């Protein structure tokens, strides 16, 4: 069996040359399309890397700020007191008597103003005992209090119950 002489027939020569040229053009188009899409993906990837880098830097800055704020919060100081007597109606205290007792309690606690908040929070039991163990005299009567609620922040909020009147 012999191979037919396709190299001499111009129709077959055009077919094979067209196939080779088509394969080369197809390969070039494929490389161009692949290169374009990879270029787009690489540019998107670099943008994402830049974004991630910026966000990581921002996270670092925010965590540093948060740490500084936590340190400052630990160093916060007491500014004011808010004291209320819950059961003043039961013992028939008028607003003047109630406010004068609150003023005396505030005078006792005034040494805590501009003290470190963390130390006050650690010694909250001492603060409670200081209020509960003291008697406050008004109009020939002595009032003893129990701390019902104590909230310590830059403003100390205290709710008191009158326990005993002598």
Automatic annotation (TrEMBL):
Highest taxon listed in the record's lineage: Bacteria
Pfam families named among the record's database cross-references: YtrI_sporulation
Keyword Transmembrane helix recorded: yes
Keyword Cytoplasm listed: no
UniProt entry keywords in alphabetical sequence: Coiled coil, Membrane, Transmembrane, Transmembrane helix
Residue ranges that the Swiss-Prot or TrEMBL entry lists as coiled coil: 38-79
Residues that span the membrane, as ranges: 12-34
Ranges where the Sporulation membrane protein YtrI C-terminal domain occurs: 80-161
Protein name according to UniProt: Sporulation membrane protein YtrI
Organism encoding this protein: Sutcliffiella rhizosphaerae
Native organism taxonomy: Bacteria, Bacillati, Bacillota, Bacilli, Bacillales
């Amino acid at each position: 069996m012999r191979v037919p002489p396709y190299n001499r027939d111009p129709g077959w020569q055009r077919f094979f040359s067209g196939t080779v040229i088509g394969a080369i053009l197809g390969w070039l188009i494929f490389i161009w399309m692949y290169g374009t899409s990879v270029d787009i993906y690489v540019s998107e990837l670099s943008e994402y890397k830049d974004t991630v880098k910026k966000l990581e830097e921002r996270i670092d800055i925010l965590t540093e700020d948060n740490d500084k704020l936590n340190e400052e919060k630990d160093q916060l100081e007491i500014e004011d007191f808010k004291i209320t007597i819950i059961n003043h109606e039961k013992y028939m205290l008028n607003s003047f008597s109630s406010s004068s007792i609150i003023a005396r309690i505030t005078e006792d606690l005034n040494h805590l103003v501009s003290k470190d908040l963390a130390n006050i929070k650690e010694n909250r039991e001492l603060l409670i005992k200081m209020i509960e163990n003291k008697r406050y005299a008004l109009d020939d009567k002595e009032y003893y209090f129990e701390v019902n609620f104590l909230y310590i922040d830059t403003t100390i909020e205290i709710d008191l119950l009158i326990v005993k009147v002598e």
